[in-house]
Amino acid sequence: MNIGETGFPHAPAGGGFGVETRRRRVSLCRAAASLYAAPPRLSMPRRRVSPYHMPFDAEGGTPYDHRKDLRTRGPRPARGAVNVVSLPLDAMAGFGRVSFAWQNPFHPGVVRRIQRMQIVIVNTRPEHFAQLVTHQQICFPTIPAEDWINAEHFAAHVRIFPEGQHVALDGERVVGQSTTLRLSAEHAFAPHTYRDITGANYLTTHDPAGEWLYGADMSVHPDYRGRRISSMLYDARKALIRRLGLRGMVAGGALPGYHHYAGRMRVEEYVAEVVAGRLVDPTLTTQLRNGFQVRGILYGYLGGGDLVEDATLLVWEA
Predict the structure, then answer these.
(1) What is the pTM of this model?
(2) pLDDT at site 114
(3) Domains of the chain
(4) Are 192 and 205 in contact, with CB atoms under 8 Å apart?
């Protein structure tokens, strides 16, 4: 049998194809077609859930069995769908990490993503002031009372620079807060303290023509930490910078983890270790993950309390 350039057998000289030749031709056609066929879809194996990783129900203290819901929730959703409606949210609250699992609404990773979906970032309004005062005291219990931002301060912020003030809301509850002002490079990068740069919390140092956004304060309620709410607040700041055409953001970053190491290393060494990833600081590590760079140390930045007074000078460029 002769094989031509197309890869198919030619007809014999006598004319017509024999039975065996036709069979070979069909086999070759099928083989050629298989080269262009889509690969078969492989189903992902179900994740085996250990009782040690299952949340507990609200009453009896017994493990919540998500497999029961798998048997009773009806037909399987279409490929790629994420069906979270049928999953009890109170049962999900016991899970740990958060990220959507492909085609599996019962994966532990779903939980905090859904929790973050319930959080919204809005500009601060007068009706938030009362909650913000309590929020300050909960988030900063160790700083001197005169350094807390009170209702009069918040009113001044909204009056002076309303678009630079944000709150994170879970329904009507304030769970996060961000305070910013505009400064020129001359003031933002000069040595300063928190009280000086913020006008003792009144933002009287705000420069409407300033080309840098200064991050004066940011906090997240202890019950809501670990849900990336601070990243959402940073994203709101970055969106404001782009909208106003500013050069970037400057901030004085506290170092709440440094007091554990203050007896055996200088603050410069501690910051270098955190930047290198060998140590983790609750504040600085989060800021580095949000694109900030350390440009220096602000000595005596904070005014007492249990926190170390020194802070980092952080910069994010648009």
Answers:
(1) 0.65
(2) 59
(3) 47-115 (no CATH), 119-317 (3.40.630.30)
(4) no
